[in-house]
Amino acid sequence: MTERQQTELLAVLGAGVMGVGIAALALGHGVPVVLVDVDPDALTRAAEAVPLRIRQGQLLGKLPREATVPQLVTTTSLDEVRQATVVVEAVVEVPAVKAKVLGEVSELVAPGTPVVTNTSGIPVDELAGHTARPADVLGAHFMNPPYLIRTVEVIRGPRTSEAALARALELLTVLDRESIVVGDGPGFVINRILQRMINESARIVQEGIASHEDVDSLFQGCLGHTTGPLATADLIGLDNVVDSLRVLHERTGDAGYAPCDLLLNKVAAGDFGRKSGRGFYAYAP
């Protein structure tokens, strides 16, 4: 373990799919993690899931097998993040919830500590406006699962300082991530394009033009995509897709981002994708 790994303490806020994945990524590279969630049951599930994710990453050659893996610390108290060197927020994609959590954590950590949001679509500067020090706030949009997908879309807000950006990029380097820095705005690059593509693909299925299998097969066979847009949506979580589309629709006014009825109906039925066992596809438990 390097001196840098020993001196880092990553606080991850939110023990959902992305929080678990980010924690596994950091621990798999020897960086200590404190994982915070208001739900004790979510933390219990996370404590069981994180070692499995690390093992998967190691078996696939995406995480180093020789790294010393620190013990994951879980807590329901935000006070436990005071000593964090970097904070990554990965709570539900609801602007008011993210703003509240980011505001609270920014009051606890030392000035100059990067406060990173993993939002998939909310402008970073909008969230930064709810914090004690907007200059410390930036975005890091990890792809799912973050311990397998190496590239991270890093978002620099108009008030993000050079120091906060550099400090966050240093940690991502320790985690062996490739960082691509982009500007701020609803959806940034990936989701401004991807979420619209998912929505339009679902609308095509809704209209009976093609099945979900055929839509995905066309993207794979004609465009060389590893997975099609609707299988990707199942991986993201259809509830998360709808939340992201709503953010984009509200902030751009573009009707193309209004979630189509098929997506809304699936979410209302609890068919969220892989995490619930059914979305556009069915998945074995």
UniProtKB/TrEMBL annotation:
Belongs to the 3-hydroxyacyl-CoA dehydrogenase family. Pfam families: 3HCDH (PF00725), 3HCDH_N (PF02737). Residues 187-283 form the 3-hydroxyacyl-CoA dehydrogenase C-terminal domain. One of its GO terms (molecular function) is NAD+ binding. GO terms for biological process: fatty acid metabolic process. This is 3-hydroxybutyryl-CoA dehydrogenase. It comes from the Bacteria. Pathway: Lipid metabolism; butanoate metabolism. PANTHER family: 3-HYDROXYACYL-COA DEHYDROGENASE FAMILY PROTEIN, 3-HYDROXYBUTYRYL-COA DEHYDROGENASE. Keywords: NAD, Oxidoreductase. The record marks H141 as: Important for catalytic activity. It comes from Streptomyces capoamus.
